[in-house]
Amino acid sequence: MSRPLPAFMAGRTVLITADRRSDDLAEAFARRGATIRHAAAMSIVHHSDDERLVADTRALVADPPDLVVVTTGAGLRGWLEAAEGAGLHGSLTDALSSARIFARGPKAKGALVAHGLTPEWVAESETTAEITEHLLALGVDGASVAVQHHGNGSDGLDEALTAAGARVSPLVVYRWGPAPDPAAVTASTRAAAAGEVDAVVFTSAPAVVAWFAAADAAGVTDEIVHRSRAGLLVAAVGPVTAAPLQAKGVAPLVPERSRMGALVRAVLEHYGDG
After folding, report:
1. What is the reported pLDDT for 226?
2. What's this model's pTM, rounded to 2 decimal places?
């Protein structure tokens, strides 16, 4: 029988702004005694509901690319699932197999290998910047490049490749949509401004932008920024998510690795676990 975890976050309220994997985050903090408040700042249009992804996949299969960039393991799996649902799985894997494949990090590589696909090169830093630098050094003038994106979009990759002469076909496996409950988001910004929340956790840059847009509309942004310097913990999963917070004048807690588990550990350590 497992021993109960120390509830050292008892009496603290954690606001989770994520849609994707929000239950995992909530459970991790609740197990340490925290009260959870959830207000998803954005919704996700999943691949199974996304007609655009299927249409883009049909176009790719009809005209296979020279190069393929896979940015996330989950994104690749979702893409293949969507293709399977549209009867395109075999055609898509054939098109990918005939291309030179580049992966952003070990998770993307692992997903490729699991589906019988071998990347030519892996960006060990897991950054778009490293992939961009590598492909530009390789030379992409005149090449057709398919880029599998996550909800944040290209992070400048598409633009850099296009400027270098490539024909870029972006494939977004899931897209950001509006908040499922805008009133809850507005209420959460007011709660943070009023000191009713101890920590706000962000897992994507678009969620930061959307949440602060709600704060701006409610007239509470200045108070939130002030509280972030006087006890309110604002945490971001990585530097991309941190950037719009820093632009607002907030200095977020950012884990060394851009992983959900690392984000949880960083918040727990802030409150005394370890």
Report:
1. 98
2. 0.70
